[in-house]
Amino acid sequence: MTDASPNPPPPLTAAFRAAFGPGATRLVRAPGRVNLIGEHIDYCGLPVLPMAIPPAAWLLLRPRADGLVRLADCAPGYPPREFRLEREIPPAPPGDWGNYPRAAAQALIGRFGELRGFDAVLCSRIPAASGLSSSSALVVAVALALLDVNRLDLPAESLAELLALGERYVGTRGGGMDQAIILGARPGAAARVGFAPLRLEHVRVPGAWRILVASSLVSARKSGPARRAYNLRPREAVEALAIVAAHVGGPADYVRLLGLHGVERLLEAGQTLLPPTLARRFRHVVTEAARVDAAVAALIAGDLAGLGALLGASHRSLRDDLEVSRPELDELVARAVDAGAAGARLTGAGFGGCIVAVADAAAEPGVRAALAEGFYRPRGVADATPHLFSVDPAGGAGVGPA
User: Fold this and answer.
1) 5/62 Cα distance (integer angstroms)
2) Which domain holds residue 65?
3) % of residues, the chain, pLDDT over 70
């Protein structure tokens, strides 16, 4: 974790005064993230390769003497929310944004007991429902605020593990990638995030490379039918693993089973033993894990073409084997590659959201132009800037004086 960076969004101070009056004293920043590769495998305990990005969620806050949390949001469409820090915090209705702060609070109460609250204004520059982890950034920001107000300390790795479990309060059965990179990222680097125990191995992203993010304009909200589809994937992965492990011999643990038998042996077993849908899910998990290690090697070697090919293979697997893509995401990927990107794929849970593309500096303008003219303009978007942007690897979350 780092100190909160300078240059928070201008609306924060005015919004706080309007909601709560003067007296804000502390500032929290929690970045979004883009996952370069390793999708839908963190919940299998397998390593992933994300990086934090400059767009962040900011909280400007004032401690309270009681156990009340009051939150206002700079963005329209997000009404104020408040709740008490009780042993069992009742959830808001499904899909309500206030469940994410509650998730952070419930996790910390379970660890530390009684807590003091705060008044805060949230201003997030992470596009919502985009696959860039706006929700986990909010969870992390609220957790850091509560730790700060209550003068408590928890190592970043321990906090990330606690919040990864705590975020299940909202009903999504995710892994621990988002919380780990939001808290532990370093500027200029991606991180190979491993689990059980949580560990981050930082890998420099070559400065001459460009990391592009492009929105499909399709919301990727993890609620309703989308949540059910997302939560089905971990269950399918576990079911497939149990069947294969029982036949080939070894623990029902993807990491250890891959270490014992290797990718090819497991793929053969999955194809033979599993029904078609589970065979596809299993094939994605096993091959995606191998792509993460190959991507780390490509970063270290400065092999942009190699990384691009891995991103392409990952997208095809997410589209065909895991079945979490959409035509809009597929079109963005194809247009980016045709325009000169080394590779591209959907990033995040899928079912909408964004793609990530990698390119060299010379190719970046052509990729941007191709997406702006070929994808966004026909959809009535004259200015693609809010939906299409480059990101540099950012540092992790932090808290400091306002």
Assistant:
1) 18
2) 11-34+50-185+395-401
3) 98
